[in-house]
């Protein structure tokens, strides 16, 4: 990342909503039962993952239960970063399209790789069987379809050096000067609008003798 930017992984918010005794935690336990809990009372994420990735109905149930908590958590973090003046906020959301959050982000960047490479990397990373890996991949929208919906595509099937070269190009692209619409949605634009309104009200009071 570059100065003025911030990477916010979606799992950061998911971890918070599943913390013990939170609203999301209580909803999930009520929906899936106490069998998904560890001895400490915390949610066993691995066990919950096996359940939802092998059963589409259970997966949809989990998404419905957690979606409001995850969305509100993400928007709260975005607000804090916006107030701090972050120029670029990168949301790392695997289920961006499924959660309908693509309407709130621009541009949409998809890191694409072919299915076989995706399968092998997932098995190696999480140390899971091929069946479990395929269940997880099939539980999400395919990368080929996401690629079509994206504004920018990064091809991750090559070397690390090739990936870094593509990343640098994307950083240059997203750090370009703001359009007028983007400016007014930025912190600087909002403050400019607020100051303009205050000046207008004060000037109106002096000119027309308006009592505030």
Descriptive overview:
This protein has 2 domains: about 1-95, 3-Layer(aba) Sandwich (Rossmann fold); about 105-175, Rossmann fold. The strands form 2 sheets. A two-stranded parallel ribbon has the order 1-2. Strands 3-4 form a two-stranded parallel ribbon. The protein has about 210 residues and is mainly α. It has helices at about 10-15, 25-30, 45-55, 55-85, 115-125, 130-140, 145-150, 160-175, 180-185, 185-210, and strands at about 5-10, 90, 110, 150-155. The model has no long low-confidence stretch (mean pLDDT about 80). About 60% of the residues lie in helices and about 10% in strands. It is flat and about 70 Å long. The chain is built from 10 helices and 4 strands. The longest helix is centred in the first third of the chain and has 29 residues, at about 55-85.
Give average pLDDT, whole number: 82
> How many DSSP H or I helices?
10
Number of strands: 4
Q: How many domains, in number, for the residues?
A: 2
Spatial sequence of strands, sheet with the most strands: 1-2
GO biological process, one term: coenzyme A biosynthetic process
InterPro entries: Depp_CoAkinase, P-loop_NTPase
Pathway: Cofactor biosynthesis; coenzyme A biosynthesis
Keywords: ATP-binding, Nucleotide-binding
Compact overview of the structure:
The chain is mostly helical.
Notable features of this structure?
212 residues; mainly alpha; Rossmann fold; 2 domains; two-stranded parallel ribbon; 10 helices; 4 strands; flat
Draw up the topology in text.
Elements: E1 5-9, H1 10-17, H2 23-32, H3 45-54, H4 56-84, E2 88-92, E3 109-112, H5 115-126, H6 130-138, H7 143-149, E4 152-155, H8 160-174, H9 180-185, H10 187-208
Parallel strand pairs: 1-2, 3-4
Helix pairs in contact: 1-4, 2-4, 3-4, 5-6
């Amino acid at each position: 990342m570059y100065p003025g930017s911030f990477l916010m992984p979606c799992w950061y918010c998911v971890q918070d909503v599943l913390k013990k005794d939170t609203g999301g935690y209580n909803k999930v336990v009520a929906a899936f039962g106490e069998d998904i809990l560890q001895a400490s009372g915390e949610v066993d994420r691995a066990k919950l993952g096996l359940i939802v990735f092998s059963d589409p109905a259970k997966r949809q149930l989990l998404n419905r239960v957690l979606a409001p908590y995850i969305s509100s958590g993400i928007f709260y973090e975005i607000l804090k970063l916006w107030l701090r003046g972050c120029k670029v906020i990168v949301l790392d959301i695997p289920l961006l399209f499924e959660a309908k959050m693509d309407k709130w982000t621009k541009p949409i960047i998809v890191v694409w790789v072919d299915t076989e490479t995706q399968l092998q990397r997932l098995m190696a990373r999480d140390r899971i069987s091929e069946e479990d890996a395929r269940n997880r991949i099939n539980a999400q929208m395919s990368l080929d379809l996401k690629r079509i919906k994206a504004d920018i595509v990064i091809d991750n099937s090559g070397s690390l050096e090739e990936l870094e070269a593509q990343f640098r190009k994307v950083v240059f692209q997203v750090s370009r000067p703001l359009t007028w619409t983007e400016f007014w949605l930025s912190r600087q634009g909002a403050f400019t609008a607020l100051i303009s309104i205050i000046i207008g009200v004060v000037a109106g009071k002096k000119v027309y003798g308006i009592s505030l």
